[in-house]
């Protein structure tokens, strides 16, 4: 979720019910630690605890030093990325590319765990491709190394984000280890979260893409898991206020020039399922001033209020998705 889960967005998700949020992927190369991009990605000033930093790389010693560096900057959890499927990352033998080299995985896990006195967690995938799945072997290795928690995305690196997440592998990993296991992949409704937890017996679920433009999904899931009831769609006035607050925090974090441009994707996600959303997104992408962008968002949601007190978009009318769309691919 590089470029998405920055500090302003993490703060918003935590306020809206996320129990835990991990930073954007930070490079382990020390030459990049003080770059503007890496410094911003590991900036936790004022963030609600726990403060978790995800690190990526392929050199055990470099990753260990990176972990120490980030703990010194306030990280309370270090998360090792072995799940990113992006070619740019995998071509550097980082992310999920590491799953091809189990001996190197073991060296990395041992080195990072020994380097710091805070919990170290691992995010990974089920394998390199469908013919080479090794999630169970990696999970056992991680447990033996002292990894505190596993987050498993139910796809191989070759799958990218296509097809359906394989929850049977997550269930097998959960049954095989004693440390907490978090299920990840295709969880986009409260009902799906419940179904995945029941099927995999995982200790928690992690939400990624489904939170883009819908950060209140965390409180919806929490409410459903506790009560079995679907929350109504949020009030238009509430979403308008949340968006404006998010944008102002975003501008403050990135500065006006970069902020107004990087905010466009967030605005696009917020409005994509709303009436007139696509036309608004296209017009909004031409704006290059923070004040104009804020005014446009405020006006758009004033119009939405004319359609009803609550947001009107697909997925809420029938209290969530139908049974077919939340079926588990086992």
Descriptive report:
By secondary structure, the protein is α/β, with parallel strands linked by helices. Helices cover 45% and strands 12% of the residues. The chain has 13 helices and nine strands. The chain has helices spanning 7-15, 36-41, 60-72, 87-90, 102-115, 135-145, 167-176, 190-200, 217-227, 236-254, 256-271, 277-284, 290-304; strands at residues 22-27, 52-56, 77-82, 120-125, 127-129, 132-133, 149-153, 181-184, 204-206. The strands form two sheets. The protein has a seven-stranded parallel sheet with strand order 1-2-3-4-7-8-9. Strands 5-6 form a two-stranded antiparallel sheet. β2, α3 and β3 (77-82) form a beta-alpha-beta unit. α3 runs parallel beside α5 and α5 (102-115) packs parallel to α6. Mean pLDDT is 89; it is low at 317-327.
